Amino acid sequence: MALLQYRNIVNYEAQQAAFEDFLEKFKTSPEQTLTHAIGQINIDEDDLSDEYDFMDEDDEAHERRQKEKAVSKQPKHKYADLLQKLADRSIDEVLIELDDLYENDTSEGLKLVESIETNTKHYVEVVSRAIDNKMPPPTTGVTFKDDVLDVIMERRQARNRDLLEAAANSNDPEMAENTFPAQLTRRYTLVFKPRTSDGDKPIKALAVRQVRGEHLGHLITVRGIATRVSDVKPMVQVGAYTCDRCGCEIFQPVNDKQYAPLTSCPSAECKANQSKGQLFQSSRASKFLPFQEVKIQEMAEQVPIGQIPRTLTIMCYGSAVRKVNPGDVVDISGVFLPTPYTGFKAMRAGLLTDTYLEAHNIIQHKKAYDEMIIDDKLLRRIGAFSQSGSVYEMLAKSIAPEIYGHLDVKKALLLLLVGGVTKVDG
Ligand SMILES: [Zn+2]
Protein backbone atom coordinates (compact mmCIF):
# COMPACT_ATOMS: atom_id res chain seq x y z
CA MET A 1 0.00 0.00 0.00
CA ALA A 2 1.30 3.31 -0.96
CA LEU A 3 1.82 5.74 1.86
CA LEU A 4 -0.26 8.85 1.87
CA GLN A 5 1.62 11.90 0.78
CA TYR A 6 0.71 15.48 1.37
CA ARG A 7 2.63 18.49 0.26
CA ASN A 8 2.11 21.38 2.61
CA ILE A 9 1.28 24.60 0.86
CA VAL A 10 3.73 26.88 2.59
CA ASN A 11 5.62 29.34 0.51
CA TYR A 12 8.95 29.41 2.30
CA GLU A 13 10.64 31.54 -0.36
CA ALA A 14 8.04 34.29 -0.03
CA GLN A 15 8.26 34.11 3.75
CA GLN A 16 12.04 34.32 3.66
CA ALA A 17 11.80 37.34 1.38
CA ALA A 18 9.34 38.92 3.82
CA PHE A 19 11.76 38.30 6.69
CA GLU A 20 14.57 39.91 4.72
CA ASP A 21 12.35 42.88 4.05
CA PHE A 22 11.47 43.14 7.75
CA LEU A 23 15.12 42.94 8.85
CA GLU A 24 16.09 45.68 6.46
CA LYS A 25 13.20 48.07 6.88
CA PHE A 26 12.02 47.74 10.47
CA LYS A 27 12.18 51.06 12.31
CA THR A 28 11.44 51.87 15.87
CA SER A 29 9.31 54.98 15.91
CA PRO A 30 10.71 58.06 17.67
CA GLU A 31 8.07 57.79 20.42
CA GLN A 32 9.19 54.25 21.11
CA THR A 33 12.82 55.26 21.43
CA LEU A 34 11.73 58.05 23.73
CA THR A 35 9.87 55.72 26.06
CA HIS A 36 12.94 53.49 26.04
CA ALA A 37 15.05 56.48 26.94
CA ILE A 38 12.92 57.34 29.97
CA GLY A 39 14.66 54.54 31.79
CA GLN A 40 17.98 56.24 31.13
CA ILE A 41 16.69 59.70 32.02
CA ASN A 42 17.71 61.80 29.10
CA ILE A 43 14.71 63.39 27.55
CA ASP A 44 14.52 67.12 27.57
CA GLU A 45 12.73 69.56 25.35
CA ASP A 46 15.34 72.22 25.78
CA ASP A 47 18.77 72.21 27.30
CA LEU A 48 17.68 73.44 30.76
CA SER A 49 17.54 70.10 32.47
CA ASP A 50 20.69 68.76 30.91
CA GLU A 51 23.07 67.35 33.44
CA TYR A 52 26.09 68.94 31.78
CA ASP A 53 24.65 72.40 32.08
CA PHE A 54 26.74 73.46 35.04
CA MET A 55 29.91 73.00 33.04
CA ASP A 56 31.00 75.90 30.86
CA GLU A 57 31.21 74.31 27.50
CA ASP A 58 32.08 75.78 24.17
CA ASP A 59 29.69 76.18 21.29
CA GLU A 60 31.21 73.30 19.44
CA ALA A 61 30.26 70.75 22.05
CA HIS A 62 26.82 72.28 22.30
CA GLU A 63 26.35 71.96 18.58
CA ARG A 64 27.49 68.36 18.60
CA ARG A 65 25.06 67.51 21.35
CA GLN A 66 22.22 69.11 19.44
CA LYS A 67 23.14 67.01 16.45
CA GLU A 68 23.22 63.84 18.50
CA LYS A 69 19.82 64.67 19.85
CA ALA A 70 18.45 65.14 16.37
CA VAL A 71 19.84 61.75 15.40
CA SER A 72 18.26 60.09 18.40
CA LYS A 73 14.90 61.54 17.45
CA GLN A 74 15.02 59.98 14.03
CA PRO A 75 13.52 56.50 13.65
CA LYS A 76 16.10 53.79 14.10
CA HIS A 77 16.65 50.78 11.91
CA LYS A 78 16.70 48.39 14.81
CA TYR A 79 17.48 45.15 13.02
CA ALA A 80 19.67 46.65 10.31
CA ASP A 81 21.83 48.14 13.10
CA LEU A 82 21.83 44.77 14.82
CA LEU A 83 23.07 43.07 11.66
CA GLN A 84 25.85 45.62 11.29
CA LYS A 85 26.98 44.90 14.85
CA LEU A 86 26.82 41.22 14.03
CA ALA A 87 28.99 41.71 10.98
CA ASP A 88 31.47 43.69 13.07
CA ARG A 89 31.57 40.80 15.53
CA SER A 90 30.60 42.93 18.54
CA ILE A 91 27.58 40.74 19.37
CA ASP A 92 26.79 37.08 18.83
CA GLU A 93 23.07 36.95 19.46
CA VAL A 94 20.21 38.00 17.24
CA LEU A 95 17.05 38.58 19.22
CA ILE A 96 13.95 38.99 17.13
CA GLU A 97 11.01 40.33 19.06
CA LEU A 98 7.81 38.87 17.69
CA ASP A 99 5.99 42.00 18.90
CA ASP A 100 7.99 43.98 16.35
CA LEU A 101 7.23 41.47 13.64
CA TYR A 102 3.55 41.40 14.54
CA GLU A 103 3.16 45.18 14.42
CA ASN A 104 5.06 45.37 11.19
CA ASP A 105 3.40 42.49 9.40
CA THR A 106 2.69 44.06 6.06
CA SER A 107 2.78 40.81 4.13
CA GLU A 108 -0.67 39.60 3.21
CA GLY A 109 -1.53 36.06 4.14
CA LEU A 110 2.02 34.91 4.91
CA LYS A 111 1.25 34.60 8.63
CA LEU A 112 4.86 35.17 9.64
CA VAL A 113 4.32 35.38 13.39
CA GLU A 114 1.93 32.43 13.52
CA SER A 115 4.35 30.35 11.49
CA ILE A 116 7.21 31.12 13.85
CA GLU A 117 5.10 30.41 16.92
CA THR A 118 3.87 27.04 15.74
CA ASN A 119 6.93 25.72 13.91
CA THR A 120 9.75 27.52 15.68
CA LYS A 121 12.62 25.13 15.06
CA HIS A 122 12.19 25.28 11.31
CA TYR A 123 11.80 29.03 11.22
CA VAL A 124 15.07 29.52 13.09
CA GLU A 125 16.65 28.12 9.93
CA VAL A 126 14.46 30.17 7.56
CA VAL A 127 15.17 33.44 9.38
CA SER A 128 18.87 32.56 9.71
CA ARG A 129 19.01 32.24 5.93
CA ALA A 130 17.35 35.65 5.64
CA ILE A 131 19.96 37.07 8.01
CA ASP A 132 22.82 35.49 6.04
CA ASN A 133 21.48 37.13 2.89
CA LYS A 134 21.10 40.53 4.52
CA MET A 135 24.40 40.56 6.39
CA PRO A 136 26.26 43.78 5.57
CA PRO A 137 30.03 43.73 5.01
CA PRO A 138 31.98 44.37 8.23
CA THR A 139 33.24 47.89 8.82
CA THR A 140 36.28 46.60 10.67
CA GLY A 141 38.65 43.97 9.34
CA VAL A 142 39.76 40.96 11.32
CA THR A 143 42.91 41.72 13.27
CA PHE A 144 45.21 39.61 15.40
CA LYS A 145 43.24 40.76 18.44
CA ASP A 146 40.19 38.83 17.33
CA ASP A 147 39.33 35.31 18.28
CA VAL A 148 40.99 32.47 16.37
CA LEU A 149 37.51 31.43 15.35
CA ASP A 150 36.86 34.81 13.75
CA VAL A 151 40.03 34.55 11.69
CA ILE A 152 39.08 31.09 10.48
CA MET A 153 35.56 32.29 9.79
CA GLU A 154 36.84 35.21 7.73
CA ARG A 155 38.85 32.79 5.59
CA ARG A 156 35.85 30.53 5.17
CA GLN A 157 33.57 33.33 4.07
CA ALA A 158 36.19 34.57 1.63
CA ARG A 159 36.50 31.06 0.20
CA ASN A 160 32.73 30.73 -0.11
CA ARG A 161 32.62 33.99 -2.08
CA ASP A 162 35.48 32.90 -4.35
CA LEU A 163 33.86 29.56 -5.04
CA LEU A 164 30.50 31.13 -5.82
CA GLU A 165 32.15 33.56 -8.21
CA ALA A 166 34.10 30.79 -9.89
CA ALA A 167 30.95 28.72 -10.18
CA ALA A 168 29.06 31.61 -11.73
CA ASN A 169 31.85 32.17 -14.25
CA SER A 170 32.39 28.58 -15.27
CA ASN A 171 28.77 27.41 -15.10
CA ASP A 172 29.89 24.41 -13.12
CA PRO A 173 27.17 23.58 -10.58
CA GLU A 174 29.46 21.17 -8.72
CA MET A 175 31.76 23.96 -7.66
CA ALA A 176 29.01 25.82 -5.85
CA GLU A 177 28.27 22.71 -3.84
CA ASN A 178 31.79 22.73 -2.47
CA THR A 179 31.15 25.79 -0.32
CA PHE A 180 31.26 25.54 3.44
CA PRO A 181 28.02 24.65 5.20
CA ALA A 182 26.13 27.63 6.58
CA GLN A 183 26.36 26.30 10.14
CA LEU A 184 30.13 26.78 9.99
CA THR A 185 30.12 30.37 8.80
CA ARG A 186 27.34 31.56 11.07
CA ARG A 187 28.72 32.95 14.27
CA TYR A 188 25.47 33.89 15.96
CA THR A 189 22.57 32.27 17.74
CA LEU A 190 19.14 33.34 16.57
CA VAL A 191 16.51 33.57 19.28
CA PHE A 192 12.91 34.72 19.32
CA LYS A 193 11.21 36.72 22.02
CA PRO A 194 7.55 35.77 22.17
CA ARG A 195 4.73 38.26 21.83
CA THR A 196 3.67 39.94 25.06
CA SER A 197 0.02 40.11 24.08
CA ASP A 198 -2.29 38.48 21.62
CA GLY A 199 -4.44 41.27 20.28
CA ASP A 200 -5.48 42.93 23.56
CA LYS A 201 -5.18 40.11 26.09
CA PRO A 202 -1.71 39.53 27.51
CA ILE A 203 -0.05 36.14 27.03
CA LYS A 204 0.63 34.49 30.39
CA ALA A 205 3.48 32.19 31.26
CA LEU A 206 2.47 28.56 31.65
CA ALA A 207 3.04 26.33 34.66
CA VAL A 208 4.94 23.13 33.96
CA ARG A 209 1.77 21.04 34.31
CA GLN A 210 -0.03 23.17 31.73
CA VAL A 211 2.45 22.23 29.02
CA ARG A 212 0.72 19.65 26.85
CA GLY A 213 1.26 17.67 23.70
CA GLU A 214 -0.45 20.39 21.70
CA HIS A 215 2.50 22.66 22.48
CA LEU A 216 5.05 20.39 20.77
CA GLY A 217 7.13 22.40 18.33
CA HIS A 218 5.58 25.65 19.50
CA LEU A 219 7.19 28.67 21.08
CA ILE A 220 5.92 28.72 24.67
CA THR A 221 6.78 30.49 27.92
CA VAL A 222 7.06 28.51 31.13
CA ARG A 223 7.47 29.89 34.65
CA GLY A 224 9.29 28.02 37.38
CA ILE A 225 12.12 27.97 39.84
CA ALA A 226 15.49 26.62 38.72
CA THR A 227 16.46 23.67 40.85
CA ARG A 228 19.45 22.20 39.06
CA VAL A 229 21.89 23.82 36.67
CA SER A 230 24.60 21.81 34.96
CA ASP A 231 28.10 22.94 34.03
CA VAL A 232 28.56 24.64 30.69
CA LYS A 233 30.04 22.22 28.18
CA PRO A 234 30.94 22.53 24.52
CA MET A 235 28.68 20.66 22.15
CA VAL A 236 29.99 19.84 18.70
CA GLN A 237 27.92 21.36 15.91
CA VAL A 238 30.19 20.78 12.95
CA GLY A 239 33.12 18.41 13.19
CA ALA A 240 36.15 19.18 11.01
CA TYR A 241 38.67 16.61 9.82
CA THR A 242 41.80 16.77 7.71
CA CYS A 243 43.03 13.96 5.50
CA ASP A 244 46.75 13.18 5.63
CA ARG A 245 46.76 11.73 2.08
CA CYS A 246 45.05 14.35 -0.07
CA GLY A 247 44.98 17.29 2.37
CA CYS A 248 41.24 17.66 2.05
CA GLU A 249 39.18 19.29 4.78
CA ILE A 250 35.99 17.38 5.58
CA PHE A 251 33.10 18.85 7.53
CA GLN A 252 30.51 16.76 9.28
CA PRO A 253 27.41 18.56 10.56
CA VAL A 254 26.07 16.96 13.73
CA ASN A 255 22.32 17.29 14.13
CA ASP A 256 21.65 14.36 16.39
CA LYS A 257 22.43 13.50 19.96
CA GLN A 258 24.82 10.82 18.75
CA TYR A 259 27.29 10.76 15.92
CA ALA A 260 30.02 8.46 14.70
CA PRO A 261 33.30 10.21 13.93
CA LEU A 262 34.44 9.69 10.35
CA THR A 263 37.44 7.45 9.88
CA SER A 264 38.22 7.22 6.16
CA CYS A 265 38.44 10.12 3.73
CA PRO A 266 35.37 10.51 1.48
CA SER A 267 37.00 12.98 -0.97
CA ALA A 268 36.91 12.25 -4.70
CA GLU A 269 40.68 12.00 -4.93
CA CYS A 270 41.01 9.46 -2.14
CA LYS A 271 38.08 7.46 -3.51
CA ALA A 272 39.58 7.29 -6.98
CA ASN A 273 42.94 6.15 -5.61
CA GLN A 274 41.27 3.82 -3.14
CA SER A 275 43.86 5.04 -0.67
CA LYS A 276 41.49 5.36 2.32
CA GLY A 277 43.31 8.36 3.73
CA GLN A 278 43.26 8.54 7.48
CA LEU A 279 41.30 11.44 8.95
CA PHE A 280 42.32 13.52 11.89
CA GLN A 281 39.76 15.48 13.82
CA SER A 282 40.71 19.11 14.15
CA SER A 283 39.08 20.76 17.11
CA ARG A 284 40.27 24.21 16.10
CA ALA A 285 38.40 24.22 12.80
CA SER A 286 35.32 22.51 14.25
CA LYS A 287 32.45 24.47 15.59
CA PHE A 288 31.26 24.05 19.14
CA LEU A 289 28.28 25.55 20.85
CA PRO A 290 28.13 26.16 24.59
CA PHE A 291 25.51 23.97 26.15
CA GLN A 292 23.88 23.81 29.56
CA GLU A 293 21.05 21.79 31.00
CA VAL A 294 18.70 23.42 33.50
CA LYS A 295 15.87 21.83 35.46
CA ILE A 296 12.97 24.01 36.53
CA GLN A 297 10.29 23.11 39.03
CA GLU A 298 6.80 24.50 39.49
CA MET A 299 6.41 27.25 42.02
CA ALA A 300 4.56 26.49 45.23
CA GLU A 301 1.50 28.50 44.19
CA GLN A 302 1.21 26.65 40.88
CA VAL A 303 0.88 23.23 42.53
CA PRO A 304 -2.65 22.05 43.42
CA ILE A 305 -3.05 20.99 47.05
CA GLY A 306 -1.81 17.48 47.75
CA GLN A 307 0.23 17.16 44.59
CA ILE A 308 3.93 17.03 43.92
CA PRO A 309 5.59 19.81 41.89
CA ARG A 310 6.58 18.79 38.40
CA THR A 311 9.86 19.50 36.67
CA LEU A 312 10.87 20.32 33.12
CA THR A 313 14.23 20.01 31.46
CA ILE A 314 15.55 23.10 29.71
CA MET A 315 18.39 22.95 27.20
CA CYS A 316 20.32 26.18 26.84
CA TYR A 317 22.54 26.73 23.84
CA GLY A 318 24.81 29.56 22.75
CA SER A 319 23.91 32.88 24.31
CA ALA A 320 21.29 31.33 26.62
CA VAL A 321 23.87 29.63 28.85
CA ARG A 322 24.93 31.05 32.23
CA LYS A 323 21.72 33.07 32.50
CA VAL A 324 20.12 30.98 35.26
CA ASN A 325 21.35 30.05 38.72
CA PRO A 326 19.76 27.53 41.07
CA GLY A 327 16.99 29.19 43.07
CA ASP A 328 16.16 31.79 40.42
CA VAL A 329 12.52 32.35 39.53
CA VAL A 330 12.44 32.58 35.76
CA ASP A 331 10.15 32.84 32.76
CA ILE A 332 11.76 30.78 30.05
CA SER A 333 10.52 31.03 26.49
CA GLY A 334 11.52 28.32 24.13
CA VAL A 335 10.58 25.52 21.81
CA PHE A 336 8.92 22.49 23.38
CA LEU A 337 10.40 19.42 21.72
CA PRO A 338 10.48 15.66 22.11
CA THR A 339 13.80 13.91 22.55
CA PRO A 340 13.90 10.24 21.62
CA TYR A 341 15.90 7.98 23.89
CA THR A 342 19.18 6.70 22.55
CA GLY A 343 21.13 3.47 22.99
CA PHE A 344 19.90 0.81 25.36
CA LYS A 345 17.18 3.03 26.79
CA ALA A 346 15.64 3.36 23.32
CA MET A 347 15.16 -0.39 23.04
CA ARG A 348 13.28 -0.50 26.30
CA ALA A 349 11.27 2.65 25.70
CA GLY A 350 10.07 1.79 22.21
CA LEU A 351 8.10 4.73 20.90
CA LEU A 352 8.18 6.76 24.11
CA THR A 353 10.13 9.98 24.23
CA ASP A 354 11.19 12.52 26.78
CA THR A 355 10.41 16.16 26.28
CA TYR A 356 12.44 19.28 26.85
CA LEU A 357 12.35 22.99 26.21
CA GLU A 358 15.00 24.58 24.03
CA ALA A 359 15.56 27.99 25.63
CA HIS A 360 15.27 31.13 23.51
CA ASN A 361 14.64 33.95 25.93
CA ILE A 362 15.03 34.04 29.70
CA ILE A 363 13.47 36.61 32.02
CA GLN A 364 14.66 36.76 35.63
CA HIS A 365 12.08 37.69 38.25
CA LYS A 366 14.38 38.27 41.17
CA LYS A 367 16.94 40.98 40.75
CA ALA A 368 20.54 40.31 41.67
CA TYR A 369 21.88 42.57 44.43
CA ASP A 370 24.17 44.46 42.07
CA GLU A 371 21.24 45.24 39.75
CA MET A 372 19.23 46.83 42.55
CA ILE A 373 19.03 50.58 42.43
CA ILE A 374 18.72 52.21 45.83
CA ASP A 375 16.51 55.22 45.23
CA ASP A 376 14.50 57.44 47.57
CA LYS A 377 11.45 55.22 47.37
CA LEU A 378 13.37 52.16 48.49
CA LEU A 379 15.10 54.12 51.28
CA ARG A 380 11.72 55.35 52.54
CA ARG A 381 10.40 51.79 52.58
CA ILE A 382 13.45 50.58 54.50
CA GLY A 383 12.94 53.46 56.96
CA ALA A 384 9.26 52.65 57.47
CA PHE A 385 10.10 49.00 57.92
CA SER A 386 12.67 49.67 60.64
CA GLN A 387 10.21 52.01 62.41
CA SER A 388 7.45 49.41 62.48
CA GLY A 389 8.94 47.60 65.47
CA SER A 390 8.09 44.12 64.19
CA VAL A 391 11.10 43.50 61.95
CA TYR A 392 11.96 40.29 63.75
CA GLU A 393 8.50 38.73 63.23
CA MET A 394 8.22 39.94 59.64
CA LEU A 395 11.62 38.53 58.68
CA ALA A 396 10.77 35.21 60.36
CA LYS A 397 7.40 35.06 58.56
CA SER A 398 9.09 35.63 55.21
CA ILE A 399 10.89 32.29 55.54
CA ALA A 400 8.89 29.62 53.66
CA PRO A 401 5.71 31.78 53.45
CA GLU A 402 3.75 28.88 51.96
CA ILE A 403 4.01 27.01 55.31
CA TYR A 404 1.43 28.29 57.79
CA GLY A 405 2.39 28.98 61.40
CA HIS A 406 5.51 27.47 63.03
CA LEU A 407 6.72 30.95 63.88
CA ASP A 408 9.08 29.66 66.57
CA VAL A 409 10.77 27.31 64.09
CA LYS A 410 11.05 30.10 61.54
CA LYS A 411 12.56 32.41 64.14
CA ALA A 412 15.10 29.75 64.98
CA LEU A 413 15.94 29.37 61.29
CA LEU A 414 16.30 33.13 60.91
CA LEU A 415 18.64 33.35 63.88
CA LEU A 416 20.72 30.50 62.44
CA LEU A 417 20.90 32.35 59.13
CA VAL A 418 22.03 35.73 60.44
CA GLY A 419 23.33 35.06 63.96
CA GLY A 420 26.48 33.49 65.30
CA VAL A 421 30.04 34.52 65.88
CA THR A 422 33.15 33.93 63.84
CA LYS A 423 34.95 30.84 64.98
CA VAL A 424 38.59 31.42 65.81
CA ASP A 425 40.76 28.35 66.24
CA GLY A 426 43.24 28.06 69.10
ZN1 LIG B 1 41.78 12.19 1.44
Quick overview of this protein structure:
The chain is α+β, with helices and mostly antiparallel strands. The protein has 15 helices and 14 strands.
Describe the protein in words.
With 426 residues, the chain is of the alpha+beta class. It has 4 domains: 12-29 and 75-189, no CATH class; 198-233 and 290-370, Beta Barrel (OB fold (Dihydrolipoamide Acetyltransferase, E2P)), CATH 2.40.50.140; 235-288, Rubrerythrin, domain 2; 383-418, no CATH class. It contains 15 helices and 14 strands. The protein has helices at residues 12-25, 30-38, 59-73, 78-87, 98-103, 112-118, 120-134, 148-170, 173-177, 182-185, 268-273, 344-349, 376-387, 391-397, 407-418, and strands at residues 27-28, 76-77, 93-97, 189-193, 197-198, 201-202, 219-229, 233-243, 249-253, 279-281, 287-297, 311-317, 329-340, 353-364. The strands form 4 sheets. It has a 5-stranded mixed beta barrel with strand order 7-11-12-14-13. It has a two-stranded antiparallel sheet with strand order 1-2. α14 (391-397) packs across α15 (407-418). The longest helix is centred in the middle third of the chain and has 23 residues, at 148-170. It is globular. It starts with 11 loop residues before the first helix and ends in an 8-residue tail after the last helix. Bound molecules: zinc ion (ZN). Zinc ion binds next to loops. It holds the Pfam family MCM_N. Belongs to the MCM family. Keywords: ATP-binding, Cell cycle, DNA replication, DNA-binding, Helicase, Hydrolase, Nucleotide-binding, Nucleus.
